[in-house]
Amino acid sequence: MPSFLAKGLTQGEKALEAEEADLVSRPVSPAELAAMICDGRVRDSCTLAAIALLRVKGLLML
After folding, report:
1. Which of 30, 37, 27, 32 is nearest to 61 (CA)?
2. Which of 32, 33, 31, 59 is nearest to 47 (CA)?
3. pLDDT tens per residue across span 10-60
């Protein structure tokens, strides 16, 4: 699964496809991300794997 780390982005208009209609995205701090993982709000295996990969590569400090 390819993973990408985007930095310096600004939010623009959403152009979601039908199956993405309930998708919610918002910026979170590293501390909030860690809390979300610990309390079970982030449970998706692909997301957790991407976060782990970024940590191993030193690109994300939690």
Report:
1. 30
2. 33
3. 888 888 999 998 988 888 999 999 999 999 999 999 999 999 999 999 988
> Is the pLDDT reported for residue 1 higher than 80?
no
**Which two three-digit tokens encode residue 21?**
């209609």
CB distance 61 to 30 below 8 Å: yes
Q: Are 52 and 1 in contact (CB under 8 A)?
A: no
Domain that holds residue 48: 35-62
- With respect to residue 52, please indicate whether it lies within any of the assigned structural domains: yes
Q: Is residue 49 part of a domain?
A: yes
CB 3 within 8 A of CB 48: no
Non-local CB neighbours of 34 within 8 Å, separated by 6+ positions: 62
The count of structural domains within the chain is 1
